[in-house]
Amino acid sequence: MLPVKMAESLPSEFDVIVIGTGLPESIIAAACSRSGQRVLHVDSRSYYGGNWASFSFSGLLSWLKEYKENSDIVTESSTWQEQILENEEAIALSKKDKTIQHVEIFSYASQDSHEDVEEAGALQRNHTSVISANPTEAANSAGLPPEDESLLTECFEMPAEQTPSSQSAQVVNDAEVTGEKENHSEDKTSEEETNDYVPIATDTIEQPKKNRITYSQIIKEGKRFNIDLVSKLLYSRGLLIDLLIKSNVSRYAEFKNITRILAFREGRVEQVPCSRADVFNSKQLTMVEKRMLMKFLTFCMEFEEHPDEYKAYEDVTFSEYLKTQKLTPNLQYFVLHSIAMTSESTSSTIDGLQATKNFLHCLGRYGNTPFLFPLYGQGELPQCFCRMCAVFGGIYCLHHSIQCLVVDKESRKCKAVIDQFGQRIISKHFLVEDSYFSENMCSCVQYRQISRAVLITDRSVLKTDSDQQISILTIPAEEAGTFAVRVIELCSSTMTCMKGTC
Question: What is the residue-wise DSSP string for 315-363?
């Protein structure tokens, strides 16, 4: 990454200017830089990843506080209008990210005194304008412990009028997944030493039931888990995994494989048999059901070669199609919601068969299930692509806002930007995260809204003989009400991490 001491010393011309460090913007910035383009990548936020970032517990509270107080707005120069010529016009960029709204906090933990409690090894926030070091360091610099916030569960919505993949996150507590990346090498050692977890002593028989977790404990253990704003699972043979491998970006991150898939049905949590070994070892399926499931999954792997078996059902939903097959209601539920992971009311038969085939196709590449996730959180992925961009000469400026885009009146093409210091920077190409545009600019774009939740628990949602399980819990949208959620649980001796994904 090119070192730049002051924002005013930025070059005045680039080939590509990228505004926002979310995953799509970071991928394009890396591709442009790798192909020899001069790239300037800026973000008004003080961390990498934008709304794709991952935080420690204290960092998340600081992020929430910033959204409530709008403290991220920086002092701007009033002289930028002088940079606009007669044949040009300015498109002002939004000063506040409105893609996340309606944040609510619910706490059910013991409210012990926590004024003097700090996260172990937490770093103070660094509000530098230009970053010329490791992108990962800035991403996790948002770990300033709050003074008056307390939460165990948090909900937030992304409004439909602002974001194309309007987000709603469901996350929680993790004791295996890990600390901040700035102490990456040190954390690796400590993780290796503490990987063998000791089961929690069960002494609740003689004592009354009480909360196992306190706010102070969550703060102290904050380095042991990261929370994703947008938690996504990666199919092991998906396009993003292929991109990570082909671009060599995968060397900048570590990944874990989900070890089991759980389903929430009729008020209880059950493990879903998805591989051949799971099917034959399952105690909740009868021998007849095992044969039914294996026969159907075998058909799904090569369903295109047998069109006569599904052509008549192309116009009905996958849920209706499953009812015509020799599957019990129990198996229909598992296939629909935990393997194909499709909607009961809107997904067609072809969509369901293709999703089931994709699920089965990804089995076995890296583990017993088809899913991978970044070890240090989803926020690792944008940082990895930013690092590649920096390696090939890209310049990064965090906490550095762009006041407006300069557009030629005749050609209607963008020709420059003006930053917070009034500097005019020319470029051939521009990429802007949509959260920087006003509602009027995005009025012709149709968005959808998703609600997400962050949940922290003190125990596994399904007891297991193993001390280390990494699970995904699927909950149908029809049963989850307004929340379309799937939950990932990481079990350990002290806490359970549950991360939502949609």
Answer: TSBHHHHHHHSS--HHHHHIIIIIIS---TTT-BHHHHHHHHHHHHHHT
pLDDT at 209 over 70: no
Selection from 118, 128, 137, 145 nearest residue 62 by Cα: 145
> How many Cβ atoms sit within 10 Å of the Cβ of residue 298?
12
Q: Is the pLDDT of residue 414 over 90?
A: yes
pLDDT (mean) for 349-371 = 92
Hey, how many other C-beta atoms are within 10 angstroms of the C-beta on 253? 18
Tokens standing for 430? 């521009």
Give the list of residues 6+ apart from residue 78 with CB closer than 8 angstroms, or none: none
| pLDDT range class, residue 112, cuts 50, 70, 90 | low
- Contacts with 324 (C-beta within 8 Å, 6 or more apart), sequence order: 313
At 263, is the secondary structure helix, strand, or coil? strand
| pLDDT surpasses 70 at 481 | no
Task: Check whether 107 has a pLDDT greater than 60.
Answer: yes
By CB atoms closer than 10 A (0-12, 13-18, 19+), residue 220 is middle
Helix axes 23-34, 380-391, angle to 10 degrees: 20
Distance CA 449, CA 162 (A): 9
Query: Cβ neighbours of residue 337 under 8 Å, at least 6 residues apart?
Result: 263, 344, 474, 476
How many CB atoms are closer than 10 A to CB 411? Answer: 9
Q: Which two tokens stand for residue 146?
A: 């709050």
Q: For the chain, report the end-to-end CA distance as a whole number of angstroms.
A: 34
Buried b (16+ CB within 10 A) or exposed e, 26-41: bbbbbbbbbeebbbbb
* Pair of tokens at residue 164: 């194309």
Q: Dihedral of the CA atoms 442, 448, 454, 455 (nearest 10)?
A: 170
| Contacts for 347 with CB less than 8 Å, ≥ 6 apart | 317, 318, 319, 340, 355
For 350, what's the count of Cα atoms within 13 Å in the CB-facing half-sphere? 7
pLDDT tier at 48, thresholds 50, 70, 90: very high
Tell which residue, 470, 480, 462, has the closest CA to residue 170.
480
Q: What is the mean pLDDT of the chain?
A: 75
Residue 305: CB atoms within 10 Å: 8
Map tokens 């990944």 to a residue.
255
Position 184 pLDDT exceeds 50: no
* CA dist., res. 364 & res. 410, Å (int): 56
- The 3-state DSSP class for residue 33 equals helix
Contact in structure between 372 and 100 (CB atoms under 8 Å): no
Predicted TM-score of the model (pTM): 0.75
Report the range out of 30-34, 121-125, 233-237 with the highest average pLDDT.
Answer: 30-34
For the chain, count helices (H), then strands (E): 13, 20
Phi, psi of 83 (to 5 degrees): -80, -10
